[in-house]
Amino acid sequence: MSTLNITLSPLAVDRLYEALSCLAKFGDYVTLEARRNKLNLRTLNSTHSAHVLICVAGDTFCDAYNFVPDPSKLGDSPLFSSNGSQSSARVEEGAFVCKINVKALLPVFRGRYVQEAVNKERDESLVQGIEKCEISLHERENRVQCRLVIKLFCRHGVVKIFKLQYEEADIMYATFLKEWGVNRWTIRAGELKKWMEHFGPKAEHLDIGSEEDRANFTSFSEKIVDGAQILKHPLQTSIELDLIEFHEFQVARDTHIAINVKDFKAMVTHAGTLDQVQISAAYGEAGQPMQVTYDQNGMFCEFTLMTRKKGAAGPAGAGKAEPVAKIVMHRGTSAAAATSARAGSRETSAPPIKVQPQSSATRKVNTPTPGPSAGPLPSSASVHAAAPSIPPTASRAASSKSASGSAEMPPPPPPLRVTPRSGSVSAASDSSLSRGTPASARQPSLSLGFKGSLQPRPSQSLFLMDEDDDDDLFGPTPAGGVDDGIEGLLDDLDDDDVLGWDASLDSERVSFVELQERAVNADAGRKAAPAAEKQESEEGSYVGPTQRRDVVKGLFDD
Amino acid sequence: MPTQLQALTPSAAPGPVFSAITTSTRHIYLLLRCIGFMPTANVSISADNVRFSVEDSHSMQANVCLTPDLFSSYNYTPSAALHAAETGAPPSSAEQFNLEAEDDGVRFQISLSALLECLQIFGADASKDRQFGGSGGSGISGRDAAAMPFGRPATTSLFDANALRLPGTCRFVYQGPGYPLSIILEESGVTTTCHLTTFITPSTYDLIPFSRSSMTHKIILKAAWLHDALSELDSTTPETLTYTATTTSSSKKPHFSLSASGILSSATVELANNKNIMETFSVTSDSMHRYKFALIRKAMKAMSVASKVSLRGDEPGVLSMQYLIEMPDKSSAPTFIDFRFLPLTDEDGSDDDGDDGEETGGSGGSNEEGEDMML
Question: What segment(s) does the record annotate as region Disordered (chain B) (predicted)?
Answer without folding.
Answer: 345-375
